[in-house]
Design brief:
This protein is an alpha+beta fold. It has helices at residues 14-27, 33-36, 64-79, 93-105, 110-116, 149-157, 188-195; strands at residues 49-53, 59-62, 85-88, 130-134, 163-165, 181-184. Strands 3-4-6-5 form a 4-stranded antiparallel sheet. Strands 1-2 form a two-stranded antiparallel sheet. Strand 1 (49-53) and strand 2 form a beta hairpin.
């Protein structure tokens, strides 16, 4: 019986990230992508902590402080009968490049892809502070999640734990509405809790 702990995924250092971004430009991502979408290049965390498995049984990871906040938030939700299920968390720029490549292979245009996926190097997932969330009875990564009890709970309570919805409707980044995409922001939960 192998009881070894899962190994965190590889992360990109600065040089690797720049190579990945150049490869993404070669695939057709516009060089002014970051400027046009008001997005900055995202550094990847030095450390990652396990947050359990996603809905497909794959180990998922967040930066340590975000992981602790996620654990507190998911426990608080469970106490109210809400199960927050992980769809995705940390992704390296290299992994994001693979997502873009697979979508191109399936015949999607770059414009179609960039409406729903950030360019490699610019995804909040690289920060190790983002969780894509779903719940039983709702398709993963679909707008219908906004009609779920989990989304209603997140709307009311996520800020107490430092999480915020990154891409509401008509967001300034020009990214499609993603009711499942929640980012932990350092210090936000403490301020929210102190306001109560």
């Amino acid at each position: 019986m192998n009881s070894a702990l899962p190994v965190p995924p590889a992360r990109c250092d600065t040089a690797q990230r720049l190579r990945v971004i150049e490869a993404a430009y070669a695939l057709g991502i516009p060089r002014d992508y970051g400027t046009c979408h008001k997005l900055r290049i995202v550094r990847e965390p030095r450390e990652l902590s396990s947050i359990g498995n996603d809905i497909n049984g794959r180990a998922q990871w967040l930066a340590p402080r975000a992981a602790r906040a996620w654990t507190r938030m998911s426990k608080a939700a469970a106490e109210k009968g809400i199960e927050l299920q992980i769809v995705s968390a940390f992704r390296s720029a290299t992994y994001q490049l693979g997502i873009i490549e697979r979508k191109l292979e399936r015949g999607l245009t770059m414009d179609e892809i960039l409406k729903v996926s950030a360019a490699p190097g610019f995804s909040e997932h690289h920060s190790g502070r983002v969780v894509d969330i779903t719940c039983t009875g709702f398709a993963a990564l679909e707008e219908e999640f906004e009609n779920s009890p989990a989304f209603a709970w997140l709307q009311r309570e996520a800020a107490r734990f430092g999480f915020a919805l990154s891409y509401p409707r008509n967001n300034s980044h020009g990214i499609a509405y993603e009711p499942w995409h929640w980012c932990w922001r350092r210090g936000q939960g403490r301020r929210q809790t102190n306001k109560r």
